[in-house]
Amino acid sequence: MIEALISSWEEYKKIAAALQGGRWPVLLTGGAMIHKAQFLAALCREQGRGALLLTQDEQSALRLCEEINLFLGEPLACHYPERELTLGEVEGVSREYEQLRLSVLSRLAAEGRTIAVASAVAALQPTIPPAMLQKSTIPLLPGQELAQDKLVGTLLWAGYARSQQVEGTCQFAVRGGILDFWPPHLPQPVRVEFWGDEIDTIAAFSPESQRREENLSQVTLTPARELLYTTEELAGLLQEHLDRPTKKQRETAGPMLERDIARLEECRDLSCADRYIPLIYPQGASLLDYLGPRLLAVSEGAAVKESLLHSQFLEDEDIKTLLEQGGLTRMAGRTPVPEGESIPALAAHGATMVLFLSAGMLEELQGQLLAGGAYRADTPAAIVYKASWPEEAVYPCTVATLAETARINGVSRTALILVGDFLGEDYRRSDLYNPAFSHSFRQG
Fold first, then answer.
1. Could you give the number of structural domains in the chain?
2. Sign of CA dihedral 342, 345, 347, 352
3. 120: exposed, middle or buried (C-beta count within 10 Å: 0-12, 13-18, 19+)?
4. What's the pLDDT band for 344 if we cut at 50, 70, 90?
5. How confident is the model at residue 331 (pLDDT cuts 50, 70, 90)?
């Protein structure tokens, strides 16, 4: 009923005809969120093609994705989430958002009617190029000749983690001639049984009971991470990069590159591999490279522009932190700070401090805070991750445990560091802002 009403609207007919005839861009104004979803869904259905819809933020993308699917009555729309690039060294990295993004990219590559909804920031983030995704997407069928060792090597290259048994996505396990793995785009893991160098059977199985459930005629192996490389390949790329810089560049970047090369030569993966994206994928790619014949739609263009400008500012500051090891109220790096504004000089007052752009070098920050003489090792502190964002998180700690707290919680950027006794239990709130305090203008 609603679709028929939209299709009969004169303005809709004009826009549909313009798109069909290759006359674009077109502008639609005055529509609420639900009207945008219905309008785009109707266009996609009528023209038999998918779309990429860019929004100002994640919340808008999720809402539009849900409303498009409700209107269409089938899950053709999928949310392509933003992920945080890990540029600094952390203990571990969650690949949950990467796996969600890869499942969307796989759908875009395989299904022309798929509608991807993403924030503009997510859409422009670097990702696996379409050609590399195609190369790493491998169909497996019963009767196919394939050595089990070769499939294990492919899984490792594609980012799967080896485990005793498969209990979560992007894991694999080997027991004799049986290989279990869980691709990110499937709701449950699969079991591949070999007879020599030939696939005998393929079946889905329960991750809880580990029992086979349903035989499959085929399964598709898709990558488990966006950056595909072997430790040997990346170590070679870093060594080439290390041999090129000038003497000054070698002094600043050399230790970091040498440290990462050593880890890779020990066959240890890098949690901070995102900082080498231009080396791994020199041609670059984003969600927009998967557009193909789909419609490209932008919701709230002015807000999208503001969101991109804000994101670019944060990225510039994060990169500046990585390269210079400092920023506003920061430790001196390539750009020095005035003598009276160094961390030890400011810390000597023992006052409350809020530090920006120093989350990537907390061990050095700890030492400089203590060097001021006024702070103790047990002085209360806190790391505020993504302050004011929906995913804001606060991690209380002390000056002496700043770096450890950041490592445990995977924080390497986009964080404020708060230091001072105001964070402790013994802090007495100022009466001026105490709601229980009465004065001539307010009854407590």
1. 4
2. negative
3. buried
4. confident
5. very low
Degrees (nearest 5) of the Cα angle 159, 161, 163?
Answer: 165
pLDDT of residue 217: 93
Tell me the two tokens of residue 420: 């001072």
Neighbours of 288 (CB within 10 A): 13
Q: Residue 364 burial by CB count (10 A; 0-12/13-18/19+): exposed, middle or buried?
A: middle
Does any domain span residue 442? no
Segments forming the whole domain that contains residue 187: 138-221
- Measured CA to CA, the distance from residue 124 to residue 33 in angstroms comes to 23
The answer on 330 and 291 residing in a single domain is no
- Which residues is 354 bridged to in the sheet? 418
Rounded to the nearest 5 percent, the helix, strand and coil shares of the chain are 45, 15, 40
CA-closest candidate to residue 115, choices 67, 70, 65: 65
Three-state secondary structure of 44-109: HHHHCCCEEEEECCHHHHHHHHHHHHHHHCCCCEEECCCCCCCCCCCCCCCCHHHHHHHHHHHHHH
CA-nearest of 75, 57, 56, 73 to 65 is: 75
Report how far residue 412's alpha carbon sits from residue 318's, in angstroms, rounded to the nearest whole number. 9
pTM for this entry: 0.67
| Same domain, yes or no: 362 and 393 | yes
